[in-house]
Design brief:
CATH architecture of the largest domain: Orthogonal Bundle
CATH topology of the largest domain: DNA Cyclobutane Dipyrimidine Photolyase, subunit A, domain 3
Structural class: mainly alpha
Shape: globular
Strand content: 5-15%
Largest sheet: 5 strands, parallel
Radius of gyration: 25 Å
Order of helices and strands: EHEHHEHEHEHHHHHHHHHHHHHHHHHHHH
Number of helices: 25
Mean pLDDT: 86
Number of strands: 5
Distance between the termini: 46 Å
Strand order of the largest sheet: 3-2-1-4-5
Low-confidence stretches: 492-552
Length: 556
């Protein structure tokens, strides 16, 4: 029987450690590697030019790698449910392979594709390559619910075997056994489109700070591993951190699958064992595990990216303020530290994890009291490494809406920036209008005497905006607001540690949690609100307590 394979590239844009691609090649007579410009990504207004450029560069790099193997990449535009059945007929396809997508949208889409393929007699093979662990197994080991604290997640992972070892890169010898039929007009129909073809204006677009693709990812991995002192000492370098993009940064490449998380994991592990001569602690992989943690929490929660219908999200009454949101998103807050961060994000598509903390806190619980959903959408547009699960999880975490509730810790947009970059070089780079300010005033130019402002050729309120808010007053007020929210929830907290742990009250609380996690269409907060009305109790929301310091979300 002739085996004609199609491998559908999605988030695994690489030839190394790609088990689903290996399945496509195994025993095949022909193979076609396809990438579909899915309208869910392509048509989204929340995908900015830097993310598009990174994706297209990654596809070009993949196509060049396939060309060296006498193959090519077929880029097709349209809905997968329309494109793939058409290709099945045109190419007489007998096998379809792709990687497992743990996100709810992806699982629904893939279920429809598998159904159509089965009806057309096409075998489908799905392999996991975007996460270290089998997320369903983690959920099963947690009584069929997602662990909602990082500590609990680590406990479960500690009981699992080590992740599967990465597979080798596809070789020319493998490709010799199966052909790719390439028409003379291939480029006319299946080439990687340009930014201009997708409707973007590229005039004045600065050069990319992050170049996409597997080749670049592997080079950066080597640079990352060259930091032997970091791995050996198992800590981030002490002292003042660099807020500028690192040539060893990897997060966008992991997001698009240009770099295998397993290759990253095992390279770190083997280097640590070589230097320290012992097995590494699980916490060495903390940033990879944060990624897995958010994927696990999101995979059974289709409303993970919103407040409504999200059973793990505290329903905080955020303000609606489009004008303030626009000032934050466009770097016009009047706080140089915040504005420099948002400028870097818009220009380059990446910001340091400390910078992410600062701007997220400023938008939500620290200063502006605007919903994390709004900030998440801005990051979705601008941040190269933003993906559905990690982006939403990080915003809930940083806004104290889930996973972490130490709301009394706020980032000062002056003091935190000054401690992070005492010289103010970061601000001078991204807000050049402030470059002539002395260090003393670079973080708070409004406090500079008018003579200093004029000498710096930047008068606050004329050349640079005044602060949009009084941070001291706003943060004090917002901490009080958060305190009130959590006080309303306090009678649901800590019961498992109290003498009431056997009471009917706790039993009812645990029943609600279990019901809402199993029946994911239920909003736990709505459920509690309805029950409270029946019993004459105050309206509240469902908290999930986690008072330990959890570290930070992923930012490699």
């Amino acid at each position: 029987m002739v085996v004609n394979s199609v491998h559908w590239f999605r988030k695994g844009l690489r030839l190394h450690d790609n088990p689903s691609l290996q399945e496509a090649l195994n025993g095949a007579d022909t193979v076609c590697c396809v990438y579909i410009l899915d309208p869910w990504f392509a048509g989204s207004a929340n995908v900015g030019v830097n993310r598009w450029r990174f994706l297209l560069e990654s596809l070009e790099d993949l196509n060049n790698s396939l060309r060296k193997l006498n193959s090519r990449l077929f880029v097709v535009r349209g809905q997968p449910t329309d494109v793939l059945p058409r290709l099945f007929k045109e190419w007489n396809v007998t096998r379809l392979t792709f990687e497992y997508d743990p996100e709810p949208y992806g699982k629904e889409r893939d279920g429809a594709i598998i159904k159509v393929a089965h009806e057309m007699g096409v075998e489908t093979i799905v392999r996991n390559l975007h996460t270290l662990y089998n997320l369903d197994r983690i959920i099963e080991m947690n009584n069929n619910s997602a662990p909602l604290t990082f500590k609990r997640f680590q406990t479960i992972v500690n009981r699992l075997d080590l992740p599967r070892r990465p597979l080798p890169t596809v070789t020319p010898q493998q490709m010799e056994r199966c052909k790719t039929l390439i028409a003379k007009d291939h480029d006319q129909h299946y080439s990687v489109p340009s930014l201009e073809e997708l409707g973007f204006k590229t005039e004045g677009l600065p050069p990319a700070v992050w170049r996409g693709g597997e080749s670049e990812a592997l080079e950066r991995l080597n640079k990352h591993l060259d930091r032997k002192a970091w791995v050996a000492n198992f800590e981030h370098p002490r002292g003042v951190c660099s807020l500028f993009a690192s040539p060893a940064g990897l997060s966008p490449f992991l997001r698009f699958g240009c770099l295998s998380c397993r290759v990253f994991y095992y390279n770190l592990r083997e280097l640590y064992m070589k230097v320290k001569r012992c097995s590494p602690p699980l916490s060495l992989f903390g940033q990879l595990l944060w990624r897995e943690f958010f994927y696990t929490a999101a995979t059974i929660n289709p409303n993970f990216d919103r407040m409504e219908g999200n059973p793990i999200c505290v329903q905080i009454p955020w303000d609606q303020n489009p004008e303030a949101l626009a000032k934050w998103a466009e770097g016009r807050t009047g706080f140089p530290w915040i504005d420099a961060i948002m400028t870097q994000l818009r220009q380059e598509g990446w910001i340091h994890h400390l910078a992410r903390h600062a701007v997220a806190c400023f938008l939500t619980r620290g200063d502006l009291w605007i919903s994390w959903e709004s900030g998440m959408k801005v990051f979705e547009e601008l941040l190269l490494d933003a993906d559905w699960s990690v982006n939403a999880g990080s915003w809930m975490w940083l806004s104290c809406s889930a996973f972490f509730q130490q709301f009394f810790h706020c980032y000062c947009p002056v003091g935190f920036g000054r401690r992070t970059d005492p010289s103010g070089d970061y601000i001078r780079h991204y807000i050049p209008i402030l470059k002539d300010y002395p260090n003393r005033y670079i973080y708070e130019p409004w406090n500079a005497p008018l003579s200093v402002q004029k000498a710096a050729h930047c008068v606050v309120g004329v050349d640079y905006p005044k602060p949009m808010i009084n941070h001291a007053e706003a943060s004090r007020l917002n901490i009080e607001r958060m305190k009130q929210v959590y006080q309303q929830l306090s009678h649901y907290r800590g019961l498992s540690e109290s003498p009431l742990r056997h009471s009917p009250c706790l039993h009812g609380y645990l029943t609600i949690i279990h019901f809402c996690l199993i029946n994911r269409k239920c909003n736990a907060n709505s459920f509690l609100h309805q029950e409270g009305q029946k019993q004459g109790k105050p309206q509240t929301s469902l908290p999930f307590r986690n008072t330990e310091q959890l570290g930070r979300p992923p930012n490699y």
